[in-house]
Amino acid sequence: MSFYSNQEVEALRKADGAYFLHPFTSIRDVDERGPKIINKAYRSRVYDIEGKEYIDGFAGLWYNNIGHGREEMIGAISEQMASLDVFHCFTGFSNVPAIQLAEKLSKIVPLVKAKVFFAGSGSEVNDSLFKIARLYWSALDMESKDIIISRNKGYHGVSYGSIQATRFPHYQEGFGPLPQGFAYINEPYCYYCPWEQEYPSCNLECAVALEEKIEELGADNVAAFIAEPVIGSGGVIVPPPGYYERIREICTRYNILFIADEVITGFGRTGKAFGIEHWNNVVPDAMALAKGITSGYVPLGAAVISDQIYRGLEKIDMFYHGFTYSGHPLACRAALKNIEILERENLKQNAAVIGRRLMEGFKNLDLEYIGEVRGKGLVLALELVADRETKQKPVHPVGFAVFENAYRRGLIVRPLDNDVVALSPSLILEKQDADRIVEILGQSIEEVMQ
Ligand SMILES: Cc1ncc(COP(=O)(O)O)c(C=O)c1O
Predict the structure, then answer these.
(1) Is the CB of 122 under 6 A from ligand 1?
(2) pLDDT by residue (tens digit) across 151-206?
(3) What is the architecture of the domain spanning 36-66+346-449?
(4) Alpha-carbon distance 207 to 209, whole Å?
C-alpha cells in the first residue's frame, strides 16, 4: 500500500530528475528509467513508494546487519537525541556514548589496547588512517615512509585520498590531479588468477607480490599496506588460506603497517566478528570500520589503531586531524545498541549458517552460467560466465541486466565488475528468504543469459 497518490509519485519522480544528482548512478539511465524510490523498510524487506515489497538482498549497501526498523534502535537513538543530541569532541571535549563505544570497540577487535578515532564514513576513516600512518612514521623520524600500497580491485572509498587506494578502472578518470604516494599490487583472485596459477601450487604468488613491490619501492619509502579481508565491491574475492598470514609476516619483516579495511567485513557479516579472523592469528596494526558498526541507522566510521601507533602519535602531541562529527553522540549510541543486538542474538552465527545455505542453494541450481559461487558468511557473489568449462566471460556485461531483472521480481542485489552479482543481506535473514533469493536470482540469471 502506498501513502502517495499516483500524481504525488509522478511529481516526486520529476523532482528527482530535476534536482537530485545520484551517487554512483548513470545520469542518462536514471533520466530514462526514473528513480527507484524506496519509502519504507522492515527487517529484511524494503517497500517502494508504490507499496511493492522487495527482499533487501544487499542490506542497503552492505551495511544493514541487524535488519531495518528495530524498535530498540529507535528507542536508543531517540533517548540519546533527547539528552545530548550533539556536541563536538575537539579540544578534549568528550561524551558518554563516544567513550563507551571506544572502549567497547577496543575490547572486541583483535588488536590489544587499541585506540579509536571516530569519523563519519568509510572513506573518512581510510583518509584518516593514511594520514595517521604517515604521521606515525614521521613521528619516528622516518618521514620517507609515506607510500600506501593497495590492491587492484580493492575499494577503500572515493574521497580525495581514499580514491587513490581504490583500484577500479574509470574511478580516477577526469578527477585529477590526485594525491601522490600510492602503489599497487594484483589481487588474490583465484578464479581468474592474475598470475594464471592454481592454489596451492602457486605458493601464494599474490602475497609474495607485496614483498616484491616493497623491494621495488624500498621499505624505507613504504608506510602501509591496506586490504579488505574479503574484497567487496571488486567482486567478493576471498583470498586463499595462508594469504594474510604471509601478508602479516611480510609487513612485520619490512616494518610496514598492515591496515585491514573491515568496512564491509566487520560486525559479523562473514560469520566471524571481523573478516581477518578467518586467517590464523593475524592481527592488523589498524582497522577501518563503518557500515555494520551502526547497521547504517546513523552514519559512523571508526579508525582503530594499535597502541604502538598511538605511542608514536603521542610523541608529536598535537593531533591536527578530526571532523566536525567525530564522536557524534547519536551515531555512537546507535553503534552501542547495534553491537549489543549483534552479540545478544549471535547474528554472526546466523550469517555463517544462512550463508552456507545460500551457497549450497546456488550450487544446487547447477546453472551453466554460474562459473563460481563464492564468499564468506553473508557476503557472497556469483561469477557469471558464458561457458563454465572455459570460464569465458559473457559477450556483453550482464550484471546490471540481472540486477534489473531481479528487481522486477522483488529482489534487490548488486551488480559488480560487469559480470559479478553480489548478495549481502542482513544477518537476520531467515531460511525461507534465503531460499526465495536463490529461486528469484536463478530465474533472473536464466532469463538474462538466454
Ligand atoms: C571496504 C570499503 N572501504 C571503504 C568504503 C567507503 O565507505 P563510505 O562509502 O562510507 O565512504 C567502502 C564502501 O563501500 C568499502 O566497501
Answers:
(1) yes
(2) 999 999 999 999 999 999 899 999 999 999 999 999 999 999 999 999 999 999 99
(3) Alpha-Beta Complex (3.90)
(4) 5
